[in-house]
Design brief:
With 445 residues, the chain is an alpha/beta fold. Strands 8-7-6-9-10-11 form a 6-stranded mixed sheet, with helices on both faces. Strands 1-2-12-5 form a 4-stranded antiparallel sheet, with no helix packed on it. It folds into 3 domains: 124 residues, no CATH class; 186 residues, Rossmann fold; 31 residues. 35% of the residues lie in helices and 18% in strands.
């Protein structure tokens, strides 16, 4: 192996090693950074993120951010999922978030009217799945700060049932839900239920806070039958009247359709621009997922954790950054790196708030494979270097023919000696070893 070949091999291995070190491990491709969801809300002051370890065992940087939300500024369901709350630091897209930890302000009450369709079409799986999802939803609401009025509706005694409804804590509403009668053969007074629900929220004596109407149905507006209440809203004029009531109210409205029998276009037309309309499959998991987003929107404080990609962590420490959180509106969270060193970890992140991809990186899942690759390449470089060194120590690479006398090779070896080595004798040549027979012959002579 020549010196040129060794240098070429070392250069190739160095390039491979550099590419391996700079590789950014990730669990999956990060989507493109979305545009900000709106201008900075003037009611919410900027917050300072805390730089923490993603896990106690690793020096991977995470930002833990707490956002405050006025209780009257409830978010839409699409804005309360973890995927909607993306964040960036300068041009860098951060990883996450995962689960959002919520805080509730118990001093300002949220009044919630739940209008539940109990018409004949809800018999069987419809009422069973809806009741199961609502039970879990109510159990997850805070014990104080939320008052719930649960009202069943069909096409008979619509106004009377809403007038009889009373607000109670969420724990008591669970018992009311369990005591609801099974659906009869009534029709669906969808439009009238919306109007009566808004009137229930308009009752005098409401405390300062947020007011919400949540309506669940599995069908379409169906009235004007013989057994229905007189004067129920029907047709396009009835839907338009209900929509105008929504637009004129100060309440937040969610219209949730459950199952394949819902006319999504009709529900969206009823919602207009102010209300939220959504249709989910007749499945308790799908309905519970939507109700969970609505529950998150009741919170007045959100805590989120974002991970810093390892390849850009050092760049964040060179200058102040504007951490921008994208949710229902863009929230600025200024962060200034330390003067002397980075990162100055202020504890560890809440492990329950990490997103799946961030958890993989923080636990060393894919990163450990990269580390093993780097270690393997380093060992290979060491072995190649040791082999080259041993080759040079063994000789200069010139081959000596087999059977040639040592004396013949001596001049070539001597010619490679330094000229400055003048004190050494150059006329001394090693003689071949004498055999025992030669010694015997010399003594006999």
């Amino acid at each position: 192996m020549t010196a040129g070949a060794l240098r070429l091999g070392a250069l190739t291995l160095g390039v491979v090693l550099a590419l391996s070190v700079t590789r950014v491990p990730r669990a999956r491709a990060q989507p493109a950074l979305p545009a900000a969801g709106g201008s900075l809300s003037p009611r919410v002051p900027p917050v300072a993120p805390t730089q923490v370890r993603c896990t106690p065992a690793r020096d991977m940087s995470c930002f833990q951010v707490t956002l405050q939300r006025p209780i009257g500024a409830l978010a839409r369901p699409a804005d309360t999922s973890g995927t909607a709350w993306t964040a960036s630091a300068g041009p860098t897209r951060l990883i996450g978030p995962g689960i959002i930890r919520m805080g509730f302000d118990s001093t300002r009450v949220i009044r919630l009217v739940i209008a539940m369709d109990v018409s004949g079409s809800m018999k069987g799986e419809g009422i069973a799945f809806t009741r199961s999802a609502l039970r879990t939803f109510l159990a997850g609401l805070p014990g104080s700060g939320v008052e719930v009025a649960l009202v069943p509706f069909e096409s008979q005694r619509v106004a009377a049932r809403f007038a009889e409804a009373r607000f109670q804590p969420a724990t008591a509403a669970v018992a009311t839900l369990q005591a609801l009668p099974a659906p009869a053969n009534g029709n669906t007074a969808l439009y009238s239920a919306v109007v009566e629900g808004l009137r229930t929220l308009d009752r005098p004596g409401a405390t300062e806070g947020a007011t919400v109407l949540l309506l669940l149905t599995d069908g379409v507006n169906d009235v004007d039958n013989a057994r229905d209440d007189p004067g129920l809203l029907g047709g396009a004029p009835g839907r338009e009247q209900a929509r105008r009531q929504i637009d004129a109210s100060r309440h937040r409205v969610w219209l949730v359709g459950v199952g394949a029998g819902v006319n999504s276009a009709e529900l969206q037309a009823l919602a207009g621009q102010r209300a939220n309309a959504a249709v989910v499959a007749l499945d308790p998991g799908a309905l519970l997922g939507l109700l969970e987003q609505i529950r998150i929107s009741f919170a007045t404080q959100y805590t989120l954790v974002y991970g810093v990609p390892p390849a850009v962590a050092s760049r964040l420490g060179r200058r102040p950054q504007q951490l921008v959180v994208h949710g229902d509106s863009a929230r600025l969270a200024p962060w200034r790196p330390p003067l002397l060193a980075s990162p100055p970890f202020q504890g560890s992140a809440d492990s329950t708030l990490l997103s799946p991809e961030l958890r993989i990186l923080a636990d060393g899942g894919e990163g450990s494979r990269t580390n093993r690759l780097i270690v393997g390449i380093a060992l290979l470089v060491t072995l190649v270097s040791a082999y080259g060194l041993l080759w040079r120590l063994a000789g200069d690479g010139r081959a000596v023919p087999a059977g040639a006398p040592v004396a013949a090779a001596a001049p070539a070896i001597a010619s490679q000696r330094p000229a400055s080595d003048a004190m050494l004798r150059r006329d001394v040549v090693d003689a071949p070893p004498r055999s025992p027979q030669d010694i015997t012959n010399d003594e006999a002579a």
